[in-house]
Amino acid sequence: MVRFATILNCKILDIPFTYLGLPIGDNPRRKVMWKHVIHKLQKRLARWKNKLLSMAGRVCLINSVLSSLPLFYFSFYKMPRTVQKEVESIQRKFLWGEEQDQRKVAWVSWDKICRKKSQGGLGIKDLSLFNDSLLAKWRWNMYHDTSNLWVRVLESKYGGWVKLIEGDNKKDYSMWWRDLRRVCGGDCSEQWFDKCMNWKVKNGKRTRFWEDKWIGQQTLAEDYPRLYINSGQQQTTIHNMGHWLEGGWEWSFRWRRRWLGRDEIQWEEMMGRLQEVVLDKNSEDHWIWMVGNNMEYTVKATYDQLSSWKNGGEEGGVYKELWSLNLPPRVSIMIWRLLREGLPTTMNLKSRNIELGESERLCSLCSRAEESTSHMFFECGITDCVWKTCYNWIDLATVLPANPSNHFQQMPISISSKKISDRWKVLWSAVVYNVWMMRNNIRFNGRRLQIQKCIQDIKNDTWRWLSLNKQFTYSYTQWQADPGGCIMDGGSHG
Ligand SMILES: [Zn+2]
Hints:
It contains 26 helices and four strands. The chain has a two-stranded antiparallel ribbon with strand order 1-4. Strands 2-3 form a two-stranded antiparallel ribbon. It is mainly alpha-helical. It has three domains: 2-135, no CATH class; 202-284, no CATH class; 317-488, no CATH class. It has helices spanning 2-19, 35-46, 55-67, 71-76, 81-96, 110-113, 127-135, 137-144, 149-158, 160-165, 175-184, 192-196, 220-223, 225-230, 261-274, 299-310, 317-324, 329-339, 346-351, 373-379, 381-393, 404-409, 418-445, 451-466, 476-481, 483-488, and strands spanning 197-200, 242-245, 248-251, 286-289. The chain is elongated. The structure holds zinc ion. Zinc ion (ZN) binds next to loops.
């Protein structure tokens, strides 16, 4: 049995060493290591290349193909920047590949696309942050899984989690260890890992009294530098800084030199704080992950936190409202692009240095002005006529701002409840969507301008989309007769 276990142990050890590659010795910065990942990604996405997919479908595919890649690469190695760029470029080309006018332009920056939907993105995974959240789990595991073989290997080779966070980079560190230090250890300038965790000291055996951040926002060494310098126990764990008596725990300190008057003040303050500390000799120290809900490290919660730090301050409100509406994905994405100034209007083409003929530059609807987003959707005489018809349904006569997100968010005064304003926003979405469709049909399919048809399409779409909400119970006939009444009714009809 013992022999069997030994063999089994060897096997466990062998797997990462020979099959997955040897992270503690290998050089993850070599691009050849990543060829497999890139190839696989290309192959998977290529399968879908010629299928007719909406942009919403392509977003889904990009994320699902990514999660089908061999994740152990991402959880062992820090992806080199050049590889990351290459993978992103494959994803980007796939996302924007099938534009109607075949110009493969990235209409919204990749950085913005990678934000969470509630933060104004499309929720495509940010590879670098995803990679970091997977890698940082090593630090967590190094501290907690002390019986794990891997952790013992790392302990003997590098000194384990302690050496991950302290000291300087040593020449004999492997690339892998350096990367880990850079992502979540001592060489990480943001120190984000430490911001996410708290120390929970129990028996004090795995926490250093002076140098770990176990009480308050800083280490005691930082809080009381005079005492720390004088201490004869600078690296000592809490467990070795005193002993258990019958009445409980008693501290014992050793000092290098006699005290000066100023030390006294720091000492009293520190001892005051230590009185609050309750040790427990029967349980182990551990870390608490403050991000997410289950106190333990999770890749998902960590990724979300990193992402919101990176994109902090981003105006999220208008996007939250957009994604909360019950709209077909192709419509939500079209509106997302409108809000992101990422629709291929001729002004936007021009700003991306795409040459257009003189006649092509003009608004397809009125041929009177250059086609910018605000012109086409809000200022154009034709569009204005469409809006006025819809405003009429709810007896509204007002001038709304020409900036897409303000226009989307500003509610006519007569609209008072969230229910009604959501319905109004569905109608709003149907207007901009159908105006865009009408424009494309004129520009690319040689259709004539048909305002009445556009309004009828808006009316039909709005009813269909509102009906996705079960509480909206108006029949098609009722809706056709009085759309404004159906929208403004705050009563029983949902
Ligand atoms: Zn126009």
